[in-house]
Specification:
The structure holds 2 protein chains of 2 kinds. By secondary structure, chain A is α+β, with helices and mostly antiparallel strands. Chain A has 5 helices and 5 strands. In chain A, strands 2-1-5-3-4 form a 5-stranded mixed sheet, covered by helices on one side. By secondary structure, chain B is an alpha+beta fold. The chains are: A alpha+beta, B alpha+beta.
Chain lengths: ~170, ~775
C-alpha cells in the first residue's frame, strides 16, 4: 500500500484515511467503521459473513462489512445505521412492532442494525413485498432471539409507511 | 388471524401489548454493548490479549519457549502458567452458582467438581485455555504472538463418547474427582419397584447444541494501582462476578467493580460467568499497566453448551391409562469440565418429579455425568429440562399409542403437582388451547397414514408439554430481591431494579411493574427511567436473568415498596403543604385534602416543589414469597412436512401455549414464545457440534457448518398466553422464557413420527436420519 489516502464517504461525510495510520491492507470495512471511526451500531458477530450483523449500505446496496476490505470502499459511499434518521420508516416499524401474535421485532438488539440495513436496501428494490419475498430477502441475517415473526411484520409495516410517503 | 389474550385482572400497564422501552435505542444502533464501549477510538491506550488454546483433545504442557513471541514488535507482555501468581490460584469451576443466588467459593454449588485450573498446564479438549496469555497493541499481533509460542506438548490419549469413557481402561480426565470419568451417581425417586417389564420402553438422544449469543463474550479490565480493578463486560451477573473475582484474586469486594451494559443475548452462556478468562485478563492487565481487552472470536464462542445426553426409560400403566411406574436413566456427556452438568442431569428431573410426576406412585431417575474430551457442557436456556422433555414426551406418545389413547387424554389423566388433585387445570387448558390452535383433531392421523403431498411429502402433528418454571416459591434460594425507586422533584421516577438486560425484556417488565405500582403518582412508563448499565458500585444486587423469573420478581418487590413510597409522599406533602397528614391522600397523580367541601389538590410536582428539592427514595430488599402455589404448564404443538424422497423436514406451523399466571408484558412474552422456537427448531433439526472422531477436533465451530434457523426456516408460530394458574403475591406470575424452548424438539419428533410412521430417537433430525429410518439410506 502506498501513502495515498483513501476516501470513503460515510453517512454523507467524507473521510480521508491514511494507510499505515488509520488502516492496513487487512483492515475490514467493519473494523475501520467501528474501531477507527466509531460507528459501533454495526456489530461484528461472526466476522465471516454468516450472520449479517455487520450489514451496511455501499452505494445503496446491502453488503457485509466484515467481508469487505476497507480499501475496497475507496471512492464509495457507505451508509451505516447511524446514517438513517430516527424517523426512518424501517427503524420506526422495528420500534413500533407489537401487533398481537407476532411479538416484538427485536429483543437483545444485537442483530437489529443489520436487519434494518438489509430491510432498507430490500424495500428500495421492492417497496411492496410479500411475506415469502421478505423471508427470502432477510434469510441472510440471523436473529438468535428468534424475532423473525416480528421482523417480518415490521418490514410489512415499513412498506405501508413507504406507500404513504415515507422516505426509505 | 391472531387472537390477543385477555387479562384475568384488568391492569393499566402490566400485561400490555406495547413496544419495548429500549426499542428506539436498539433499532437506531445507539445502544452500547460491552464491545462498543471500547472501540479503539474511544480508548486509545487499550491493549488486547489472546490465550493459548490446546490444539489437542488431551495433553499436558511440558514447557513453553516464549522468546520469539516476546520479541515480536507490539507485544506488551505474557502471563504464563508457571508464574507463582497464576500457579497459586485455587482450583475452580465455571459453575459456582446457577445464577439464582450469589455464592462464595466455599458455598459454591458444585464444590465436588472443582476441576478447572486458571491457565493451567493440563488441556482436556481442543480449545482449552492453557499455558499463556499474550497482551499486544492489536488483536492481530496477539494472535501472531500466540502462534510464535513454542509449546512442548505431552499428547495424551483421549475419549469422546460418554459410554466409551465409562469403560475400564479409558483415558481418565480428572482422576482425583472421578477415577473412572463417572461423576458420583445421583438418584431421584424411590427404590426400584418395577415388578414386570414396562409396558413401553424408549430411548431419546439429545445431541449437543450451543447458545450462539450474537454478542461475542468479552471483557475489558483496568486497574487503578495494584489494588482496584474495574471489569466491563457482557457478563449477565455482576454481583456474582464481583464475588468470583474478589475471591479468586484475594481482593476486598470494594476493590472490584463490575459493570455490564446491554448484552446481546445470553441463553445461559458460560454458566454464571465464573470463567477463568476474567482472572487471567485481570492479572495480565495489572502486569502491563494498561486497560486490557479479551474478546472471544466466533470460533472461540463455541465455549460451552447443552449436555449431550442419552436417556432410556420405561413406563408401566394400567389398561385405563393410569401410569403406575416410570423409570428413567440418563448418561450425560459433560465434556472436559463438570461445571453444571449434574444440574442438568439431576436437578431438572428432581424438579419434574415434584411438579409433574407427583401422582405416579413409583418414579425413579438415575443420572450419570461422564467426563470426555469434548467441549464442556454447562448452562443453556432450558437447562436439563430440554433433554428431560425429549424422553418424557416420547414416553407419553409411545404409551398413548400402545393403549390406543389420545396422548392429550393420557397426559391429563396422569400429570400434576404434588400439592393438588388431578386433573391439573393448567395442564388441561394449555393442552386444549394448543390442540385447537394447531387443528389437532383434524390434522392428526394414524402414524404415516396421512395423505401424500407433491408426490413424496407427508405431514404430521405432535406436541410435548412440560411444567413451567419458575414460580416465586421456587426462587426462595435467591435470597433477597432488591429494588429502589426515587421520586424526583419534577414527578418523574428513577428506577433501580438492577438486572442485566440480555434481551429478555425484563427491563420493560420492570418499568411496567413500576408504573402499575406507582399508579397513585400518575406516572406512565415514559416518566420512569430504568438504569440500563448495571454497576456494582452504584446498583443494588442484580437479579440475574435465570429461571425467566426476573419478569415478575422485581415487580413483586415494587408492589410492596410502593406502599412505603406512598406514605413518604404523604408525609412530605403534609410538611410542604402545611396540612395534617391525616387529612391528605394521593391518587392519580394528585395530592388532595380529603375534605368533601372546599378541598384542595396539587400535582406531585407542585407538592414536591413547595419544599426542599430533594427526591424521595424507597429501597427494599425482600426474599421471594414461599407460598406453595404449585406451577403452571406449557405446551408446544408442531406440524411438519417430511419429504420422503430427500429426507428434509420442513416446519409448517407451531402453537406455543404458556400459562403465565399473569402476563407481565404481552409483546415481550410473545417474543419469548416465538423466539424460543428458533433454538428449539434448531436443536430439533439442524444444530449439532460435530467432531472428527480420529483426531477429536471439533468440525462445526462456525455458523456455516453449525446452522442456526433463519427466517426462511421458521414457520408461522401462534403464541398463546393464558392466565389459568395463579402464583403468590400481587401478580402471581411465572417465568416463561426458558420453558419456551423446552418442548419444541419432542413436539417435532412426535410430529415426524405422525407424518412418516417411523420413530427417530435422536436429534437433530437431519435428512440422513429420516432416510435411514425409512430404509432409504445407501
Amino acid at each position: 500500500m502506498g501513502t495515498v489516502p483513501i476516501r470513503i464517504t460515510v453517512n454523507d461525510r467524507l473521510y480521508e484515511l491514511l494507510p499505515g495510520r488509520d488502516l492496513d491492507a487487512s483492515t475490514t470495512l467493519a473494523g475501520l467503521l467501528r474501531e477507527r471511526l466509531g460507528f459501533t451500531g454495526l456489530k461484528i458477530s461472526c466476522d465471516e459473513g454468516a450472520c449479517g450483523a455487520c450489514t451496511v449500505l455501499l452505494d445503496g446496496k446491502a453488503v457485509l462489512s466484515c467481508m469487505l476490505l476497507a480499501v475496497e470502499a475507496d471512492g464509495h459511499a457507505v451508509t451505516t445505521i447511524e446514517g438513517l434518521p430516527p424517523d426512518h420508516p424501517v427503524i420506526q416499524a422495528f420500534v413500533e412492532q407489537c401487533e398481537p401474535g407476532y411479538g416484538t421485532a427485536l429483543q437483545c438488539g444485537y442483530c437489529t442494525p443489520g436487519f434494518v440495513m438489509t430491510a432498507t436496501a430490500f424495500l428500495r428494490r421492492n417497496p411492496r413485498p410479500t411475506l415469502p419475498e421478505i423471508k427470502e430477502a432477510l434469510s441472510g441475517n440471523i436473529c438468535r432471539c428468534g424475532c423473525y415473526s416480528g421482523i417480518a411484520q415490521a418490514v410489512l409495516h415499513a412498506a405501508e409507511k413507504i406507500a404513504k410517503g415515507g422516505q426509505v | 388471524m391472531k387472537t390477543p389474550f385477555t387479562q384475568r385482572t384488568p391492569r393499566t400497564h402490566v400485561g400490555q401489548y406495547r413496544p419495548r422501552i429500549d426499542a428506539l435505542e436498539k433499532a437506531t444502533g445507539k445502544a452500547r454493548y460491552a464491545d462498543d464501549l471500547f472501540a479503539k477510538l474511544r480508548i486509545p491506550d487499550l491493549a488486547y490479549c489472546k490465550v493459548l488454546r490446546s490444539p489437542h483433545p488431551h495433553a499436558r504442557i511440558r514447557g513453553i519457549d516464549d522468546r520469539a513471541a516476546l520479541a515480536l514488535p507490539g507485544v506488551l507482555g505474557i502471563l504464563r502458567y508457571d508464574e507463582p501468581q497464576v500457579a497459586g490460584l485455587k482450583a475452580t469451576s465455571a459453575g459456582w452458582t446457577d445464577g439464582v443466588d450469589t455464592v462464595s467459593y466455599e458455598t459454591m454449588m458444585w464444590r465436588r467438581y472443582r476441576d478447572r485450573r486458571v491457565l493451567g498446564d493440563y488441556a482436556c479438549w481442543v480449545g482449552d485455555e492453557v499455558g499463556a496469555v499474550v497482551a499486544a497493541e492489536t488483536e492481530a499481533i496477539a494472535e501472531e504472538a500466540i502462534r510464535l509460542l513454542k509449546v512442548d506438548w505431552e499428547v495424551l490419549p483421549f475419549v469422546l463418547d460418554a459410554k466409551d469413557a465409562m469403560q475400564p481402561g479409558a483415558p481418565v480426565l480428572h482422576p482425583e474427582i472421578a477415577p473412572q470419568n463417572v461423576m458420583p451417581e445421583d438418584q431421584v425417586g424411590g427404590p426400584h419397584r418395577f415388578v414386570d417389564k414396562g409396558d413401553v420402553e424408549g430411548t431419546s438422544v439429545f445431541h449437543n447444541a450451543t447458545q450462539c449469543s450474537l454478542d461475542p463474550w468479552c471483557c475489558v479490565i483496568e486497574w487503578k494501582g495494584d489494588q482496584q480493578l474495574t471489569v466491563w463486560s457482557n457478563s449477565y451477573e455482576t454481583d456474582q462476578s464481583r464475588m468470583h473475582i474478589s475471591q479468586m484474586l484475594d481482593l476486598p469486594q470494594t476493590k472490584v467493580r463490575v459493570v455490564s451494559p446491554y448484552v446481546g443475548g445470553q441463553f445461559g452462556r458460560g454458566d454464571t460467568g465464573d470463567q477463568p478468562f476474567f482472572l487471567f485478563t485481570a492479572l495480565l492487565a495489572r502486569k502491563i499497566g494498561r486497560p486490557l481487552k479479551f474478546k472471544h472470536t466466533r470460533r472461540e464462542s463455541f465455549h460451552d453448551g447443552r449436555q449431550q445426553a442419552t436417556y432410556t426409560a420405561r413406563v408401566g400403566a394400567r389398561k385405563d391409562g393410569t401410569i403406575v411406574a416410570m423409570e428413567f436413566k440418563s448418561i450425560g456427556n459433560a465434556g472436559a469440565h463438570a461445571d453444571h452438568t449434574m444440574f442438568a442431569l439431576k436437578f431438572a428431573p428432581m424438579e419434574l418429579t415434584e411438579v409433574a410426576l407427583a401422582h405416579v406412585p413409583n418414579v425413579r431417575f438415575e443420572a450419570y455425568g461422564v467426563y470426555t474430551n469434548k467441549m464442556p457442557a454447562c448452562m443453556m436456556r432450558g437447562v436439563g429440562n430440554s433433554q428431560t422433555n425429549l424422553i418424557l414426551g416420547h414416553m407419553v406418545d409411545l404409551l398413548a399409542e400402545k393403549l390406543g389413547m389420545d396422548p392429550i387424554d393420557l397426559a391429563i389423566k396422569n400429570f400434576g403437582h404434588e400439592w393438588e388433585h388431578l386433573p391439573n387445570k393448567s395442564l388441561t387448558e394449555v393442552l386444549h388451547a394448543g390442540a385447537a390452535r394447531i387443528g389437532w383433531k383434524e390434522k392428526r392421523h394414524a402414524p404415516g397414514q396421512g395423505p401424500t403431498f407433491d408426490g413424496t411429502k407427508k405431514r404430521g402433528v405432535g406436541f410435548s408439554f412440560h411444567p413451567g418454571w419458575h414460580a416465586e416459591w421456587q426462587e426462595v434460594r435467591r435470597g433477597e430481591v432488591q429494588v429502589a425507586m426515587t421520586l424526583n422533584p419534577d414527578g418523574t421516577v428513577t428506577l433501580d431494579a438492577p438486572t442485566v438486560e440480555t434481551g429478555t425484556g425484563s427491563n420493560t417488565c420492570n418499568v411496567l411493574g413500576c408504573a402499575e405500582a406507582l399508579g397513585f403518582l400518575g406516572v406512565t412508563p415514559a416518566d420512569i427511567h430504568w438504569v440500563a448499565v448495571i454497576d456494582t458500585n452504584l446498583s443494588g444486587k442484580d437479579c440475574v436473568q435465570t429461571d425467566s423469573a426476573v419478569s415478575y420478581l422485581q415487580s413483586e418487590v415494587m408492589a410492596v415498596a410502593a406502599k412505603e413510597l406512598k406514605q413518604k409522599v404523604l408525609e412530605r406533602a403534609a410538611k410542604n403543604l402545611k396540612q395534617s397528614l391525616d387529612d391528605l391522600d394521593v391518587a392519580g397523580g394528585r395530592v388532595f385534602t380529603k375534605k368533601k367541601k372546599g378541598g384542595q389538590s396539587w400535582t406531585i410536582a407542585e407538592m414536591m416543589n413547595a419544599g426542599p428539592l430533594v427526591g424521595l427514595t424507597v429501597r427494599l430488599s425482600r426474599p421471594p414469597l414461599a407460598e406453595r402455589t404449585g406451577v403452571p404448564y406449557i405446551v408446544t404443538f408442531a406440524e411438519v412436512e417430511v419429504d420422503t424422497a430427500t429426507g428434509r423436514t420442513q416446519m409448517l406451523q407451531m402453537a406455543v401455549v404458556n400459562d403465565c399466571g399473569c402476563v407481565m408484558y404481552a409483546s415481550g412474552a410473545e417474543a419469548q414464545q416465538i423466539g424460543g422456537q428458533t433454538i428449539g427448531v434448531g436443536e430439533a433439526l439442524y444444530e449439532e457440534i460435530v467432531y472428527d472422531k480420529p483426531t477429536g477436533q471439533p468440525m462445526s465451530f462456525n455458523w456455516i457448518d453449525y446452522r442456526i434457523p433463519t427466517m426462511a426456516d421458521m414457520p408461522d408460530i401462534d403464541p398463546v398466553l393464558l392466565e389459568v394458574w395463579r402464583g403468590g403475591g400481587e401478580y402471581g406470575a411465572c417465568g416463561i422464557g426458558e420453558g419456551t424452548v423446552t418442548c419444541a424438539p419432542r413436539a417435532i419428533l412426535n410430529a415426524i413420527y405422525n407424518a412418516i410412521g417411523v420413530r427417530i430417537d435422536e436429534i437433530p433430525v437431519g435428512p440422513e436420519k429420516v432416510l435411514a429410518a425409512l430404509g432409504k439410506a445407501r
